[in-house]
Prior knowledge:
Blueprint: H1 15-42, H2 47-71, H3 76-79, H4 81-92, H5 98-113, H6 119-132, E1 143-146, E2 149-152, H7 161-167, H8 173-184
Antiparallel strand pairs: 1-2
Amino acid sequence: ACTTRADVPPPATDLRLQRELLTRVASDQAVRDTFAAQLRATGTLTPAVVASMRAVDSVNLAWLKPQLRSAGFPTRAQVGKEAVQAAALLVQHADAEPTFQAEVLPLIEAAYRAGDLTGQEVAMLTDRVAKAQGRPQRYGTQTTGIDGRIVFDPIEDSAHVDARRASMGLPPLAIYKQLLDSMYGRKPAP
Length: 190
């Protein structure tokens, strides 16, 4: 199919910030890939993997917090789609500072309304903030591993969670559970 000039997004205007966000999210995802692989293989996590993930998150948070406070949440026009999504993911993984996550949630919601992020980013951060504040989550994006099983953390008005998920472009909870089980479920020994 032929693309027109209107189909091609304009180039990012802040290439330095774009590179920084993409580099940081690459390290974030690399440590989480190790986490998932170990969990699938053994059903447990070594303290070293957990420490590695916390170290990456800590370094990213130390950089991200002043960046967002001084310059605001990046836009697609500034850094491109992937880097905006990277910024949202780094905020989600800033669990060591839930007050920062709560502070950034309105910025994530504004980015969603502007078309810079998807409903998934809003739903995931909304649920992380609720969980950190001791409240039930709205969209069912947060889970806990119990005895090798993935269990959803408490969900408010769970009878209507699939409707809320659909409004944010998320699949039904049962489909999400299957995805999580395939990603993190322990594989049987050969």
